[in-house]
Amino acid sequence: MDRAHSKNLKCEATLLNIKLQRGNQTPAAQKMDSSKAIIKNSDMSENMQQKAVDYAKEGMDQYGVEKEVASHVKKAFDRDFGPTWHCIVGRNFGSYVTHETNCFIYFYLKSIAVLLYKSDFGVNINELQSNFLDFCDPVMNQYNAQNKAVVKSADMPEDMQQKAVEIAQEAIARNSVEKDIAAHIKKEFDGRYGQTWHCIVGRNFGSRRRCSRSLIMQSYGDKERAVIKNADMAEEMQQSCVECAQEAMRKYNVEKDIAAYIKKEFDKRYNPTWHCIVGRNFGSYVTHETKNFIYFYMGQVAILLFKSG
């Protein structure tokens, strides 16, 4: 796919318009339209548009969580039309993305916005990783009442994953303080797999961690406090991303403009093709190149930045 045929599209402007229109509807009209898809922007064939709407309806009927709806739609389009599709589902987000020609749709269904697009441009799928994120839940890993481990994200062989779970179970059985649990796990993995491992445990994180640059930074007040939730990216690039986001938030108040600024800066600094989503309430299922993914908070705003293509 020739890069010249890709498009940069902003989605938030129409999102604001549709909120106003819905606010002016009568309750009867709102109820009548609740199952009707409203296509806001698309360069897809009608057949593909219909499939996108059908899969979104299917996902919303089956699942109550936005990330699971996004996952359902993304996987279906990967299967039907080949990789690599990305899907964002939510009520409040802005975006600036690059997509292949005739592979983009942005629509509303049941008052929820759905952004679906393809971005591959010949990237070897073996060099890509998938990330499955729920931006409404700040706890990335959790135990249920039966001590069953739920793996939310991993880039590790299954035997190492199992060992991590077993060591965590052992640590939780022995310790009640989060930093002690983290220290136990970190030391065990250092001993088994070589230094230097880092471990974060809990809802209000206590950690035993060594790094050359802190990934939790405080500057210019709460609005610019960066908290890295998940990253597959060099630390200096993470720092560059946080600084870029801080700069964008000083200049702009609208999420789509913040996303556009960060995406363009990273395209310039680290070459195309970057994608950026900014918002308070959305779920996603995306595929990214190795070492080119970050998900973090600036105050109460979530920022997803990744490279694909």
Average per-residue pLDDT, rounded, comes to 75
Question: How can the largest sheet be summarized?
Answer: 11 strands, antiparallel
CATH level 4 superfamily of the domain at 226-307: Protein Inhibitor Of Neuronal Nitric Oxide Synthase
Give a count of the beta strands, DSSP E runs of length 2 or more: 15
CATH class group of the domain at 226-307: Alpha Beta
Using only C-alpha atoms, the radius of gyration works out to 20 Å
In DSSP terms, counting alpha (H) and pi (I) runs of 4 or more, how many helices? 8
In CATH terms, what is the fold-level topology of the domain at 226-307?
Protein Inhibitor Of Neuronal Nitric Oxide Synthase
GO cellular component, one term: nucleus
Protein name: Dynein light chain 1, cytoplasmic
Organism: Hymenolepis diminuta
GO molecular function: dynein intermediate chain binding
